Amino acid sequence: MHSPLPDLRAVVYEHRPALKELSLELHAMPETRFEEYYAVEQLTDRLAAAGFEVDKGVADLPTAFTATHRGAADGPTIAVLLEYDALPGIGHGCGHNLIAAGGLIAALAAVAVRPGHAGMLKVIGTPGEEGGGGKILMLERGVFAGVDAAVMFHPADRSLRARHALAASHLRLTFHGVAAHAAKAPWDGRSAAAAAQLFLTAVDSMRQFVPPTARVHGIVTHGGDAPNVVPERAELDIYVREATSAALDELLVRVLAAAEGAALATGTTVEHAETAPRYTERNNNMTMADRLAVHSAGLGLELEPPSPANPAGSSDIGNVSVHMPVIHPYVQICPRGTPGHSAQMREAARTPEAHAVTETMATALAALVLDLLDDPEFLTSVREEFQASVPACAPDRRQES
């Protein structure tokens, strides 16, 4: 079969101004989780103009959407996933403006080069990745039903075919004490702030005795109302992460025991709640990732193979990855070692260099999409790897195929 790369490269090149314009517009208008109204309008307007059937507000999420391009013959359903939420206080310090613009151009290029493709190409707009679990909610509410494979990419400080991601729990702890005058009669009070402080000390003491893969970190979101009042309420938002969901369950028991111990020691009480759906570790489909790397290499972009030495975060695409084959490669937009979720990453996400490498990744991603739509043997090999890999991760979550 004739390689689509030259044609895709030409189409993406024609879309260069639109990609840059969209990316910079989203960057200048950062919207946090589930508030991405401007981004959705910009994306869906462009998809509708290209002939996609747009459905907004799916899964009862106002800023979630799907856009479908139906092919000329029966075939699989392949999804390109877009993220477009920003970080509170930082903006696009995770580069989601590039994910949205690059994924959009990849989908437009694929249908422009092969409008008579088999099956269906879906663009799925997934809000609230940063702590909201938007993909998980959409998965649970049926948006991914019938999707055979899902693809996306992510900006980073290095270019990778895949990277492990940690299972994560977004935990809110609320300590309740007794208010009292902090000077006249502090003995009548019970300090919720002291309980929060003791809990954080307990977590720090725990670090030597948890596996190197464990992560517990967070912030105090409320520590009292006035310095002369013993705080009757203190609140913390904590992320607890581990390499697998099973290990996360075990770590959570210890973290919550530390919270109960801090409450007992200070004469307070504590309650906890998860503020977002639980994130699952990522099941990377290397058959797709390796094919993407071939396409990107043909465009001059080398993607490193995955390595345990690469640092890992968490993403709601992990939950999708135990239901269907998924890739989540990374593309370098800044010097190696630049911290993610930072002002440095935010500024890198608007540079000409970032837009150039996003164009390359969009071209490679479009080529992979066409492979999945029109090469049944390749899709079969993707499915076979998925069926073999998922039981070790989540034996009860395999998608029927």
UniProtKB/TrEMBL annotation:
InterPro entries: Amidohydrolase (IPR017439), Bact_exopeptidase_dim_dom (IPR036264), Peptidase_M20 (IPR002933), Peptidase_M20/M20A_hydrolases (IPR052030), Peptidase_M20_dimer (IPR011650), Xaa-Arg_dipeptidase (IPR017144). Residues 171-260 form the Peptidase M20 dimerisation domain. It comes from the Bacteria. SUPFAM superfamilies: Bacterial exopeptidase dimerisation domain, Zn-dependent exopeptidases. Pfam families: M20_dimer, Peptidase_M20. Belongs to the peptidase M20A family. This is Peptidase M20 domain-containing protein 2. It comes from Streptomyces bugieae.
